[in-house]
Specification:
The protein has helices at about 50-55, 85-95, 110-120, 125-135, 140-145, 155-170, 185-200, 215-220, 235-240, 245-255, and strands at about 10-20, 25-35, 40-45, 65-75, 80, 95, 175-180, 205-210, 220-225, 230-235. By secondary structure, the chain is α/β, with parallel strands linked by helices.
């Protein structure tokens, strides 16, 4: 197992990361480097710590009472758990898309414009530019451009998830965290999300949690295998899926896990 999988610049680094929900330890001594502008997949069985780890990267776990962390998480070399960290700005830099699409009960336009408004954008023309750009980036513009004033709940499940991706992109993050973004979608919508990840990878550092081994192999450059809160193996996706170094990893990827 290596902390880094290649020679690309490191965007996110965790060192000796332990995480606790009250007295229960959920992550154990996680050290890994996530390279810039690549897709890193986190795989492993349910309850292994993948989503907990993902949420340490933008401090989403802070909203859960009784949690604590040891070790460090740095983005571009800056410790995001330092006392001086502005968590609002951190979450602008590190966007997140959840397993279940969660559009606001607002129009399609207002869903995408929400983040920029929070961060001070008031000019209507500028907001319109941001909304169009974000919807184009999320491959949704052509489907909704004539009904931007309609409620987002009128969209299909796959469209709602792409709207949530557009909403995350609207505040111009550097990093996009995706927690099983296609698990609740039909195969066609899943394929659209996977294609979208492929289009975004050149401009964003993406970290995705997935239970789907085929999806991990299709969309990611690097893969990390978690088990019982520990990082078991981390390497390029090609090597992980063809030459895993740890038997647990091989068993999980091939479906013999247990």
């Amino acid at each position: 197992m290596s902390e880094s999988t290649n020679d690309l610049p490191v965007k996110i680094a965790t060192r000796h990361l332990d995480f606790f929900y009250g007295s229960v330890q959920a992550l154990f001594d996680i050290s890994m480097d996530i390279p810039v502008k690549r897709v890193t997949a986190l795989i492993g069985p349910s309850g292994c710590g993948k989503s907990t780890y993902l949420r340490t990267l933008n401090r989403m776990n802070d909203i859960v009472g009784g949690t604590r962390i040891k070790g460090s998480v740095t983005i571009d070399g800056a410790d995001i758990y330092s006392d001086g960290t502005d968590v609002v700005l951190l979450r602008k830099q590190v966007g997140m898309v959840f397993q279940k699409s969660n559009p606001f009960p607002k129009s399609i336009f207002e869903n995408v414009a929400f983040g920029p408004r929070i961060h001070g954008v008031r000019n209507k023309n500028r907001l319109s530019e941001i909304v169009e750009k974000s919807l184009r980036q999320s491959a949704l513009w052509d489907e909704v451009k004539d009904r931007l004033d309609k409620n987002a709940f009128g969209l299909s499940g796959g469209q709602q998830q792409r709207l949530c991706i557009a909403r995350a992109l609207a505040v111009e993050p550097d990093i996009l965290l995706m927690d099983e973004p296609a698990s609740a979608l039909d195969p066609r919508s899943t394929a659209r999300i996977e294609d979208l990840i492929g289009e975004l990878r050149d401009n964003y550092t993406i970290v995705i949690v997935t239970h789907n081994m085929q999806q991990a192999s299709r969309v990611s450059d690097n893969t990390a295998f978690f088990f019982e809160g520990k990082l078991i193996e981390y390497d390029t996706t090609e090597r992980m899926f063809t030459q895993p170094q740890v038997k647990q990893t091989e068993d999980y990827i091939t479906g013999r896990f247990g």
